[in-house]
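Lecture notes, unit on protein representations.

Consider one protein chain, 96 amino acids long.
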Amino acid sequence: MNAVLEQEVTVLSEMGLHTRPAAQLAKMATAFNATIFLSRWEDPASETECSSILGLLMLAAPRGAKLRVKAIGADAENAIRHVAEYFAAGFGDERE
């Protein structure tokens, strides 16, 4: 069964969604039996696959931006949980 799940996440990193976390999200996207998408919360047309580093960077998501993470596939629940945890951890960026 191909589940479709969505969840809101917030960019907590002071540097926003920058190159390193975009690359990590792209890598993470290949680890699940699901296709993962991100879009700006207020603009569903901005949707891009998490496997595209350039697409993620084009979201131009600063600190505080609300994003929609969507996953489609057998492993959608696990994929959503991992992506949401990564956002909640501020991408591992140190806070000053």
